C-alpha cells in the first residue's frame, strides 16, 4: 500500500552537473553561472552545480571551482557538488560548499567503470567522508547508482541495494537517494524499492533520481512520491546522462516535472514560466532543441477568448 502524494516537495536541480557532464557541447564558465542564476531565479532552492572529478575523464566539469566561486553564496540556495572520493571532498570543502552529494554504486562492474573501485570500496570511502563532512557541518546526501538496473550486470537484487543503503546510513547520511541511472525502472519497482528502503532506514529522508530513457521517468517520479519520497532530482530541459553508462540519456525535465506536480496540487515553489524561459535560453547555448516538452507547448490553463 503506497502513501498518498505529499502536498509539497523539494526539487534538486541537477542540470548544471548531471545535465552537462555527458554532453558534447561544453558550456563556458560564464554560461554555467548564468544557467545557475536563472534556475535560482525560477525558485529552485537546491542546485547541484558541479562535480569534483578528474577533468581528463569528465572535461565538462573541469571548471568546477571557477563556477562555484561565482554561485556558492547565492542567497536562499543550497549549492552542492558531487564528490566521488576523498580528494573530491577536499575540493568541495575548499570551495566553501555546505552540501555534498556522494555516489555509491550497486554493482562492482559499474563501480569500477565509474570510480575505479568496488561497491564495497565505495561504502568504505563514504564512511571516511561522512565523518569528516559531519564534523564540518555539511549536509550529506548519498545516492545509490544503478539501483534499478546496471548496464553491465543487468538486474540488481533488491537485497544488495538495501544492504548498501544500511551501510551508508550507519556511516552517517542526511538523506539517501535511489538512482535509475539507465532508465529501466518501472512504477512497481519504484514502489517496492522505496518501501524496502523506508523499512531499512526508518525516518531517513528519501530522494529519487530518474532518467527518462524509456519514457517512464515521470510515472516513476509519481510512484516515488506515493512511496514516501520527499525530494526529486530533475534537469532543466531534460539534459543528462552518465559518461560511464552506455546508452544513458537525459534526466526527467524540471519544467515537465513541475508542470505535472503543480497540476496535481503538489507545491514546488518553482515558477514554470521562468523555467520555460530558462530552457529556451539553454537551447540557444546548446545549439539544439532539448528533450523537455514544457518550453514548447502553450502554458496551461489557458484562458480562451469569449
UniProtKB/TrEMBL annotation:
Keyword Metal-binding: yes
InterPro entries tied to this protein: Aldolase_TIM (IPR013785), HMGL (IPR043594), PYR_CT (IPR000891)
PROSITE patterns per the UniProt record, alphabetical: PYR_CT
Family: Belongs to the HMG-CoA lyase family.
UniProt KW S-adenosyl-L-methionine keyword: no
Source organism: Methylobacterium nonmethylotrophicum
GO biological process assignments: ketone body biosynthetic process; L-leucine catabolic process
Keywords: Lyase, Metal-binding
PANTHER family the record matches: HYDROXYMETHYLGLUTARYL-COA LYASE
Residue intervals of the Pyruvate carboxyltransferase domain: 9-276
Protein name (database record): Hydroxymethylglutaryl-CoA lyase
MF terms (GO), sorted A to Z: hydroxymethylglutaryl-CoA lyase activity; metal ion binding
Transmembrane segment boundaries: none
Amino acid at each position: 500500500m503506497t502513501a498518498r502524494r505529499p502536498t509539497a516537495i523539494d526539487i534538486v536541480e541537477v542540470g548544471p552537473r548531471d545535465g552537462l557532464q555527458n554532453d558534447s557541447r561544453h558550456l563556458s564558465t560564464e554560461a554555467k553561472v548564468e544557467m545557475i542564476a536563472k534556475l535560482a531565479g525560477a525558485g529552485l532552492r537546491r542546485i547541484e552545480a558541479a562535480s569534483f572529478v578528474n577533468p581528463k575523464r569528465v572535461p565538462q566539469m573541469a571548471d568546477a571551482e571557477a563556477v562555484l566561486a561565482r554561485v556558492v553564496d547565492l542567497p536562499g540556495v543550497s549549492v552542492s557538488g558531487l564528490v566521488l572520493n576523498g580528494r573530491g571532498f577536499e575540493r568541495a570543502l575548499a570551495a566553501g560548499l555546505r552540501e555534498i552529494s556522494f555516489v555509491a554504486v550497486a554493482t562492482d562492474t559499474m563501480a569500477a567503470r565509474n570510480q575505479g573501485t568496488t561497491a564495497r570500496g565505495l561504502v568504505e570511502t563514504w564512511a571516511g567522508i561522512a565523518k569528516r563532512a559531519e564534523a564540518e557541518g555539511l549536509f550529506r546526501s548519498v545516492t545509490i547508482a544503478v539501483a534499478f538496473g546496471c548496464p553491465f550486470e543487468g538486474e540488481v537484487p533488491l537485497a544488495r541495494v538495501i544492504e548498501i543503503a544500511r551501510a551508508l546510513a550507519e556511516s552517517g547520511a542526511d538523506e539517501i537517494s535511489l538512482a535509475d541511472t539507465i532508465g529501466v525502472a518501472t512504477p512497481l519497482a519504484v514502489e517496492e524499492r522505496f518501501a524496502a528502503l523506508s523499512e531499512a532506514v526508518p525516518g531517513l529522508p528519501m530522494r529519487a533520481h530518474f532518467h527518462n530513457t524509456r519514457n517512464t521517468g515521470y510515472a516513476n517520479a509519481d510512484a516515488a512520491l506515493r512511496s514516501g519520497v520527499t525530494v526529486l532530482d530533475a534537469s532543466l530541459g531534460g539534459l543528462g546522462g552518465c559518461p560511464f553508462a552506455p546508452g544513458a540519456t537525459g534526466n526527467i525535465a524540471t519544467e515537465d516535472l513541475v508542470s505535472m506536480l503543480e497540476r496535481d496540487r503538489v507545491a514546488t515553489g518553482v515558477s514554470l514560466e521562468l523555467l520555460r524561459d530558462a530552457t529556451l535560453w539553454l537551447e540557444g547555448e546548446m545549439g539544439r532543441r532539448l528533450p523537455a516538452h514544457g518550453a514548447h507547448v502553450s502554458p496551461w490553463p489557458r484562458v480562451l477568448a469569449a
